[in-house]
């Protein structure tokens, strides 16, 4: 067993550095950008035309929160190549496994993250908006200088949990042939016929990464809560 662990560990770590961690970081970054945009759009009050845009974003959130992540990956990588659009995608929408994974993980993270950010913004007292308006601040100034910094502190714990979950969810990328840690563990298990050892080993490395992220989350929470009134 120890020989298997010694041989497999470098391969698993390499797969994590090359694929698992980059997928998680890139997807979370784009997911948060999309989440913030979605939350702000859904909280805005504009004309009737803007209601259509809000409806589109609401449908997007509903769609990705109501369907399994694994199904979304299969649709993006295996299904979209069969969707032909004359003049634009006559041969279907084809993506590399890595791009398909980034796209789906980003959209999924954005859908869940938008609800967290939206709730955080709504939790800020309306009195702060009114106080800022009373001293001549514009709406965007109030949003970026007063509301969003507070909302960021409130949403830090749930968004950190989302990132930790995303790190674990990258194991689903094996289903679309991305050679991340879990996929590599499957390949090695097929060679040495030791699936229990390999799956326990890869679970151990996922646990290490998630534990380190949990410590980082606690540290960030302490920093952001340093000046809050208890």
TrEMBL record:
Organism domain of life: Bacteria
Pfam families reported in the protein's UniProt record: BPD_transp_1 (PF00528)
Recorded topology in the membrane: Multi-pass membrane protein
GO cellular component terms listed in the entry, alphabetical order: ATP-binding cassette (ABC) transporter complex
Main localization, broad class: membrane
Keywords carried by this UniProt record: Amino-acid transport, Cell membrane, Membrane, Transmembrane, Transmembrane helix, Transport
CDD domains per UniProt: TM_PBP2
Gene3D superfamilies, alphabetized: MetI-like (1.10.3720.10)
ABC transmembrane type-1 domain location: 17-217
Protein family per UniProt: Belongs to the binding-protein-dependent transport system permease family.
Subcellular location: Cell membrane
Protein name: Cystine ABC transporter permease
């Amino acid at each position: 067993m120890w020989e298997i662990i010694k041989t497999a560990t470098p391969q698993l770590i390499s797969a994590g550095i090359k694929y698992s961690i980059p997928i998680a970081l890139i997807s979370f970054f784009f997911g948060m950008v999309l989440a913030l945009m979605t939350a702000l759009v859904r909280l805005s009050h504009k004309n009737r035309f803007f209601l259509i845009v809000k409806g589109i974003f609401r449908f997007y959130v509903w769609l990705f929160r109501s369907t399994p992540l694994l199904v979304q990956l299969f649709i993006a990588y295996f299904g979209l190549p069969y969707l032909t659009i004359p003049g634009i995608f006559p041969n279907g929408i084809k993506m590399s496994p890595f791009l398909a994974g980034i796209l789906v993980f980003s959209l999924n993270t954005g859908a869940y993250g938008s609800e967290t950010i939206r709730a955080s913004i709504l939790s800020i007292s309306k009195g702060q908006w009114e106080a800022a308006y009373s001293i001549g601040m514009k709406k965007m100034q109030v949003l970026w200088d007063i509301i969003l910094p507070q909302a960021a502190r409130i949403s830090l714990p749930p968004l950190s949990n989302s990132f930790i979950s995303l790190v674990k969810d990258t194991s689903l990328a094996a289903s679309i042939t991305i050679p991340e840690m879990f996929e590599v563990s499957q390949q090695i298990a097929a060679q040495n016929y030791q699936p229990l050892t390999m799956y326990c080993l890869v679970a151990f490395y996922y646990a290490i990464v998630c534990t380190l992220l949990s410590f980082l989350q606690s540290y960030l929470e302490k920093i952001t809560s340093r000046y809050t009134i208890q």
